[in-house]
Design brief:
Two copies of one chain form a homodimer. Chain A is mostly helical. Chain A folds into two domains: 351 residues, no CATH class; 133 residues, Transcription Regulator spoIIAA (2-Layer Sandwich). In chain A, 60% of the residues lie in helices and 6% in strands. In chain A, the strands form two sheets. Chain A has a six-stranded mixed sheet with strand order 4-3-5-6-7-8, sandwiched between helices. In chain A, strand 5, helix 20 and strand 6 form a beta-alpha-beta unit. At the A-B interface, helix 17, helix 19, helix 20, helix 21 and helix 22 of A face helix 17, helix 19, helix 20, helix 21 and helix 22 of B. Chains A, B: Pfam families: STAS, Sulfate_transp. Chains A, B: Keywords: Membrane, Transmembrane, Transmembrane helix. Chains A, B: One of its GO terms (biological process) is transmembrane transport. Chains A, B: It comes from Pseudomonas abyssi. Chains A, B: One of its GO terms (cellular component) is membrane.
């Protein structure tokens, strides 16, 4: 606090105001997505901002309800309670509480690295799958229906005037929001506003549909004609309540809390990192865990649901000039003021407006480009992405994520299990050695130099052994084998056993085995084994020296007269 | 068959006879261990030998009931039926059938490589854990008890004369078997036999306790006094019966069959490989699958239970001079003759004799040396071994194996997630580049050369990025970064995304990024990416050339006057 500079205040104030206004429709929309009353979204936008400001490491990230955690709350809780019931709300609060405790504990235990085990294809697949699920969940709201109709015929048979009204409002809202996203800023610039101001005003466009929606519904009394509205919202700030969850709920919420924590963390860290890069700052994953944990504890304490860093709100925050977490505090104050003063009016807000806000936000998350890119780069990664997305869609969020993690681990093992082993020779008149199959190189007649291009571990020991024996078959005059370990960063005990047996096998054929370019850490570990100690021949610092030395040794035999 | 040489016949005949006699007690013992009537063990020693002879690739491996598959049959089937019941026997036969079908199908599909995913620590841990389970299951039999007493007090309270008799017989049998294993051969040599003959006779020692046990129990009518005996055995060969399993049984046997197939395959392949090495032959894992599949189908067809390659029987086979699978056929004939002629007499065989045979066979499998070795080589591998063994002991065989596989995969990822990244410099007056922390080397003032000693993939992208930024902090004057990829055999899409962001980050600081020693396969994959195509600077074939070129470029700046 002492270090706060007055020059930062202007930016923080503007950003706080803009983000505060912008996230009102968002927060309500994501609460609706989570199957909760819309004010819960607003409650979840107060304390979390303060909690994150206290512990988080990103100066400009804005936390609150986001689409993915909204969806996860809905799908993880729906087997446990009826959406909209008091039990359901209680479970949603406890889910935030449990996830806050977990994230905070993970931060204290410095377990931030765990998020590294989610590969990009898994994250991208998950986001795309979740986005499709969200779109599917909101489409019926565009027609004013409580859920998907059994058939198109049923939809037409049950069609009423109110459905037409809702669909009309929905399409207008969608149109306005899309225009705000793609054309409004340019239009505002054309009428003379600065680029920055035009951009900020465009971000506030969702508020226009909210205000218009409320006004129209109220004046035309559309709620009475069957247009689904948000319904009465208690005025004022949420009461701070601590309710200790019972054991049975805790147990059933454990896995959901792990998953929502993991996803929130990965999402938030990647957002925080991309923000930090823009400002040339750096973030600390373990402090991010603490910040997110505090944010979720704050959400639970004020009767909100699970929160996480949001990409659009954080971008707007930084674009509007936020310098410090004070911007977040001001955003929270704006929402608090709205809750105290204007909450009762939101009762007339048509649900379809919030559905339109959600649809416009999540459709761009369905990312076919990343699928195409992953597929082109590596089939296994494309399949991982596709598998995760389909898993999320067809089997559910938990199963999809687990399936994705399994796919990416199996792909990694699979790659490691098929090592590239090259017979190398000297590039003429140099000290370099290259693959005989890719380059014109010189080899020694009785020396077989093999470069193993993979760590030697259980999944590939057989393959490495086979490749070596195969090379011996191709070069039957071999007297000395040189293994070049420049690309071997680790040898596990299964690999060591194989190498030891291989050395014995070669010895029986009267062939010596030598090593070159063993890396420091590998040598440290092998130092005390029988293999290095007794079984093998020499260990050379470079292939060049090994070639010179062994070339002579191998050619010493009577049937071959010198070089 | 046409290629059979007459010179092989002598060895095959001897080996066939010796192994045939030797495996009679073994087979009965392992059937008892599996919770089956002892003759089932003999039935499982006939057709499997022929089936394997037809399809297998090892010339000298002997298949039949072994301790580990006996134990697995018992633990996998005990939740499904009462040991000793007709249902239980039927399930055991179907388990062999299903496992035979799977192994044969895997062989046809050439899935032999799947066994590579069992690392040595997992296999060793599993064998040790299973051996301890077997010992625990046989100890009560040493006291003539049906199972473990509730307490030592209960044991003493219920003690009867028959318990003393059984314990006495058991200790005598154990003593004899241990002597046969460790001292008998030397003693026989001392009385003038050749080393080979003495060794073979010592292997037949178990038959002596079997014969003595039958004679004593019969003469003293010990069965009537409460000494548990094997009980009546139907004389003659088993009828060949094909019974199609019902769907419910098939479903419950599916996972057990997968596990028993996997373990049998791994066991058999490692035995076959060590045998093949002794005779300088080679084996084909896919043909081993076919051979084992046929063996298990044979076992099922003749009313036996699951079989696999046995280490002791195969060693004896090779030591006794076996040259071809004909030896196995002769062993089968020996057992068939015993079944036809002597089976009824085995009714008097005390169970404690078989328990002694089992104990002497499995205690050496509890392998503390491999735990010590793994622990010393790498803590993670020691923990994997220990975790597998404890998992098998405390959670059961399935859970233990799965736990072990998970441990070894996590250990592998964990290693990969902590890459060694070295700042390198030139070894004076050479073309070699080494870690600045381990060697006295020369560096260029504005060039940071980093060697990344690990494949770059999702689990370590953050760590690699961090290491590079850390090195930049240590060398703040850096103008050009050179990544030496000699030890990078693969870059996944998560890694590529990181490298691409890193390059942008460096560009913002006005630092260039270049590559050296990119491996052929890595370059092939990167060829069409934006990263190689547009973002990075130059790609050098060797660090030497890169150092010479970039050293000059980096030092071009005014504040530094040439080299």
């Amino acid at each position: 606090m002492r270090q706060y500079r007055r020059a930062w205040l202007g930016g923080d104030l503007t950003a706080g105001l803009v983000v505060g206004i912008m996230i009102i429709p968002q927060s309500m929309a994501y609460a609706m997505l989570a199957g909760l009353p819309v004010q819960i979204g607003l409650y979840a936008s107060l304390l979390p901002l303060l909690g994150y400001a206290l512990f988080g490491s990103s100066m400009t990230m804005s936390v609150g309800p986001v689409a993915v955690t909204g969806l996860m709350t809905a799908t993880l809780l729906s087997p446990l309670a009826v959406a909209g019931s008091a039990d359901y709300l209680q479970l949603a609060i406890w889910l935030a509480l449990l996830s806050g405790v977990m994230l905070f504990a993970f931060g204290l235990l410095r377990l931030g690295f765990l998020a590294n085990f989610l590969s990009h294809p898994v994250i991208n697949g998950f986001i795309s799958g979740a986005a499709i699920l969200i779109v599917l969940s909101q489409l019926p709201k565009l027609f004013g229906l409580p859920g998907w109709p059994d058939s198109p015929a049923a939809l037409l048979a049950g069609w009423q005037r109110s459905n037409t009204v809702v669909l009309g409002m929905g399409l207008l809202a969608l149109g306005w929001l899309l225009y705000a996203r793609h054309g409004l800023a340019a239009q505002l610039q054309r009428i003379g506003l600065s680029a920055a101001l035009a951009g900020l005003l465009a971000k506030l466009a969702p508020l226009v549909v909210v205000v218009l929606g409320v006004l129209v519904t109220w004046r035309a009394d559309l709620a009475a004609q069957g247009v689904p509205v948000v319904g009465s919202i208690p005025a004022g700030l949420p009461a701070l309540v601590w309710q200790t969850p019972d054991m049975a709920s805790l147990r059933s919420l454990l896995l959901p809390a792990v998953l929502i924590s993991l996803v929130s963390f990965v999402e938030s860290v990647s957002i925080a990192q991309s923000l930090a890069r823009r400002k040339r700052q750096s973030i600390d994953p373990d402090r991010e865990l603490l910040g997110l944990g505090a944010a979720n504890l704050g959400a639970a304490l004020s009767g909100g649901f699970a929160v996480c860093g949001g990409f659009s709100r954080s971008s707007v925050n930084i674009e509007a000039g936020a310098n410090t977490p004070l911007a977040g505090v001001i955003s929270a104050a704006v929402i608090g003021l709205i809750l105290i003063s204007l909450a009762p009016m939101l009762a007339w807000l048509p649900q379809v407006v919030l559905a339109a806000v959600i649809l416009v936000a999540v459709v761009p998350l369905i990312d076919l480009a990343s699928l195409r890119r992953a597929w082109r780069y590596d089939r296994a990664e494309g399949l991982t992405l596709l598998g995760t997305a389909l898993g999320v869609l067809l089997l559910g969020i938990e199963a999809g994520i687990v399936l994705g993690i399994c796919c990416s681990i199996i792909a990694q093992l699979w790659r490691g299990s098929r090592p590239h082993v090259a017979v190398v020779g000297r590039v003429p008149d140099t000290h370099y050695f290259r693959n005989t199959k890719r380059h014109l190189v010189e080899t020694e007649p009785h020396l077989l130099a093999l470069r193993i291009d993979e760590n030697i571990f259980f999944a590939n020991t057989k393959a490495v052994e086979q490749a070596i024996y195969q090379a011996l078959g191709d070069y039957p005059d071999t007297r000395e084998v040189l293994l070049i370990l420049s690309a071997v960063n680790h040898i596990d005990s299964t690999g060591l056993d194989m190498l030891s047996e291989l050395t014995e096998g070669l010895k029986e054929r009267d062939i010596g085995l030598h090593l070159a370019e063993v890396k420091g850490p590998v040598m440290d570990q092998l130092q005390h084994t029988d293999w290095i100690g007794r079984q093998i021949g020499q260990v050379f610092p470079s292939t060049d020296i090994a070639f010179n030395t062994l070339g002579k040794v191998a050619n010493r035999a009577p049937e071959h007269s010198g070089e």
